[in-house]
Design brief:
The complex is a heterodimer of chains A (310) and B (441). By secondary structure, chain A is mainly α. In chain A, 74% of the residues lie in helices and 0% in strands. Chain A is built from 14 helices and no strands. In chain A, helix 8 runs parallel beside helix 14, helix 9 packs across helix 10 and helix 11 packs antiparallel against helix 14. The N terminus of chain A is likely disordered. By secondary structure, chain B is mainly alpha-helical. Chain B has 19 helices and five strands. A five-stranded parallel beta sheet of chain B has the order 2-1-3-4-5, with helices on both faces. In chain B, helix 11 packs across helix 13 and helix 13 runs antiparallel to helix 16. Classes of the chains: A mainly alpha (310), B mainly alpha (441). The interface between A and B is large, with 106 and 106 residues.
Chain lengths: 310, 441
């Protein structure tokens, strides 16, 4: 069952792709000129998507005379790897991790804990909202769905006052809790879609076999929710990985900055040398880029599953 | 234990973590935001006054009231001026007893404040001198005399017996002084502050320009819905049909979504950088435009300035989020049952007709989600504005940047009023979109 569910988004698209091509063309041939134009359009947009990244990587290896001079677009004449050394060590204190690495680790730690907390809490809540029968569950569900439209900034000020009073600034807890709370609505929405696909007969069978509510939840529901977990994981990750405002106000201390805020502060606002800044940006992008290159299919499938279920 | 009670306990246990998280991080803070937005605590310090504080400032406003303050300490003068700012009172300051008497005999003040800690014995001496003056020489014979100290060490009774009407301890703390001032100021000179004062001031005050901020956010929303979404929909339709290289294109288009917004902002900042061609400081786009002859002069187009800033941020937003919406919509295209498509094709429908009459109506729910995300996303946009426009952002405001600016300047109540408006806008637009899509069904 779990395997079956997991492959669903991929296999559906695969059969679609296989079916639609030849059969449809038999019915009505697409105008070849139109087809060529479509391809040109697609390629142009792909170039627009890739070019800034190419530009970033090349200018991270140049010095100012090239970036701003006569070699803006071409490959660097001299490959200045020293830019990377400079970006890596910039602002580094004796005996400490390089700032970029520190920020990166902070972001990872926060993202991982946010995802774990969101998953657990959301699946439990969804179980109560969809599988258990009680009065008022519709209302509670609506309450959670309010979170989809509420902008995260609206609770910033009271939260900040509370967080600074509890001395939770410059730590992980405040950000993890905030991000989880704001990811919760989407997670519950996606979870509901997945959980309603699990036949209720399974619960009943488990009950007859002597499984209690908790047993059913951990032994039957949780394993079957695995595909949902990766989907929720993707959405939660995107949110917590990119967030700047909360991160900049809660964790402004150097040791706990996340990647977005850290990067924006790393070189100050008016750096004259472009190369090292470009190198810093590249270093910060690279890990995500590598993960994406290897897992792009899976990431997209999970993301799309969320779109359809939600 | 009966089964029903057990079931109820289970429900509570399963729901509790989510509820606690949701209520404590989202619902309660938003209620506080709403509550703050109606208070007058513009100077409230960040050290936390979540529920009733001792530093509560009474809200009153009395622009016509004349106040004389005898204060020997310049720091304290500045702080007092700050305290009085909200009340619109502009106090005159004197530094010692002699000038106090001189000034008080010339101008008719409503209220005279004397700092007993910095004036010392002068505080009692000068009031005696004032009272000793004849009624035609003393312009301030009706004025209320208030003694105050800064550290709470002065003896209240000494001054009340010495001729003062009122005494305020630890005046810089505010609350005591406010009480005294309310007693001292003639009632007809006090202006009532309306409860929505913060909401009015953020639109009226010159530096707040919240109206412009909302206008900018709405422009962004319109651009997103009418440029970004059609582009994403087009890509999704073309790719969803199943063409060669589908997966590759999909991966490339989705990829910017995974890059951190700050990095994207910085990158576009460099691409759009405007310098001067003659001293080799021009950015990429300006050089390209010069290459094809659009820019003739040495100075490039200042893409990140007040005039073009909004457009530039939109371009970066477009670059970042088209992939996001495309994949959402692509999932919608893929969810169209294959037989519906085939049936239409067999009936002789062209590709455009299939898209228009079969695919798009079928994927309406996904389009709705996309539209709502695009609009609320534009209303909430913050990162790209602060990163790309760092210095200019004051002049190209959006609601969130204004809110943060006010928050960092300790003008909390107004910042809260802004976020209340922001929440309201998000809900209103979500509702409007809901209605628009509901009608067509």
């Amino acid at each position: 069952m779990a395997e079956n569910n997991e492959k669903k988004p991929l296999s559906v698209s695969a059969t679609l792709a296989a079916n639609s091509g030849p059969q449809i063309e038999m019915v009505k041939k697409t105008n070849p000129i139109f087809k060529v134009l479509t391809y040109i359009g697609l390629v142009v947009w792909a170039v627009i998507n890739l070019f800034p990244v190419y530009y970033l990587i090349t200018f991270s290896l140049k010095d100012n005379s090239e970036v701003l001079g006569d070699n803006k677009i071409g490959l660097p004449r001299q490959w200045l790897w020293s830019n990377y050394v400079e970006a890596w060590t910039s602002g580094r204190l004796e005996g400490e991790l390089p700032p970029i690495l520190r920020y990166f680790l902070n972001s990872i730690i926060i993202a991982v804990f946010t995802i774990l907390l969101t998953l657990l809490v959301a699946v439990m809540a969804t179980y109560a909202l969809t599988r258990l029968r009680w009065k008022g569950r519709g209302t509670v569900n609506k309450l959670f769905m309010l979170g989809l439209t509420i902008p995260i900034h609206a609770s910033l000020l009271p939260l900040f006052l509370a967080v600074s009073r509890l001395h939770l600034t410059n730590g992980y807890l405040a950000l993890v809790l905030s991000y989880s709370a704001f990811a919760l609505s989407m997670a519950i929405l996606i979870c509901t879609g997945f959980m309603s696909d699990i036949p209720i007969e399974l619960d009943e069978a488990a009950y007859i076999d002597g499984c209690g509510t908790w047993g059913t939840f951990f032994k039957i529901i949780m394993p079957l929710m695995r595909p949902a977990l990766s989907t929720i994981g993707i959405y939660t990750f995107l949110q917590s990985w990119n967030e700047l405002l909360f991160a900049s106000i809660f964790n402004s201390g150097k040791a706990y900055r996340t990647l977005p805020y850290g990067i924006s502060m790393l070189f100050g606002t008016h750096t004259t040398e472009w190369g090292p800044v470009g190198a810093g940006l590249t270093i910060a992008t690279l890990p995500t880029l590598l993960v994406y290159v290897f897992l792009s299919g899976k990431i997209q499938a999970s993301f799309m599953a969320g779109a359809v279920k939600g | 234990m009966n089964k029903n009670a057990k079931n109820r306990i289970n429900v509570i246990l399963f729901l509790l973590p989510a509820l606690i998280l949701f209520v404590s991080i989202i619902i309660l803070p938003i209620f506080y935001t709403g509550y703050f937005s109606f208070t007058d605590r513009k100077e409230m310090s960040a050290e936390g006054h979540l529920l009733g504080s001792k530093k509560k400032h009474t809200s009153y406003r009395a622009p016509g009231v004349k106040v004389l303050v005898a204060e020997g300490d310049y720091d304290a003068q500045a702080k007092l001026e700050e305290i009085f700012r909200n009340t619109r009172i502009k106090p005159d300051f004197v530094e010692n007893g002699t000038s106090l008497v001189k000034k008080a005999s010339a101008i008719a003040y409503d209220c005279i404040l004397v700092d007993v800690s910095s004036l010392g014995s002068d505080a009692l001496g000068s009031i005696e001198k004032l009272k000793a003056l004849g009624s035609d020489e003393n312009a301030c014979k009706d004025a209320t005399m208030i003694a105050y100290d800064l550290d709470g060490s002065a003896n209240e009774d000494t001054y009340l017996n010495g001729g003062y009407d009122l005494f305020a301890a630890e005046a810089l703390d505010g609350s005591d002084l406010d009480d005294c001032m309310l007693k001292a100021i003639p009632e007809d000179k006090i202006e009532k502050i309306s409860i929505i004062d913060n909401y009015i001031s953020i639109f009226k005050e010159e530096y707040a320009i919240f109206g412009t901020a909302i206008k900018n956010a709405l422009i962004l929303a319109v651009l997103s819905v009418f440029i970004q979404l059609p582009l994403a929909l087009g890509l999704a339709l073309v790719l969803g049909k199943g063409i060669k290289g589908e997966r590759g294109f999909l991966s490339i288009y989705f990829f910017p979504v995974l890059i951190s917004t700050v990095i994207i902002g910085k990158l576009w900042m460099y691409i759009l950088y405007a310098g001067n061609a003659s001293d080799f400081t021009d950015g990429l786009l300006n050089t390209l435009l010069r290459g094809i002859g659009i820019i003739k002069s040495d100075n490039g187009i200042p893409w990140l300035s007040k005039t073009y800033g909004l457009g530039s941020v939109f371009v970066a937003t477009l670059w970042q989020y088209v992939g996001y919406h495309m994949l959402l919509l692509y999932a919608g295209v893929k969810s169209v049952p294959i037989d519906m498509r085939e049936a239409a094709m067999l009936d002789g429908a062209s590709e455009g007709q299939v898209n228009r009459f079969i695919v798009i109506p079928y994927m309406k729910p996904v389009i709705k989600v996309s539209v709502i995300f695009a609009i609320t996303g534009s209303l909430k946009s913050y990162d790209l504005f602060t990163v790309m426009l760092n210095d200019v952002v004051r002049n190209v405001p959006v609601p969130t940047t204004k809110m943060v600016e006010f928050m960092l300047n300790d003008r909390y109540a107004q910042a809260c009023a802004m976020s209340v408006i922001l929440i309201a806008l998000c809900f209103v637009f979500a509702l409007i979109v809901d209605l628009c899509f509901g009608k067509e069904d």
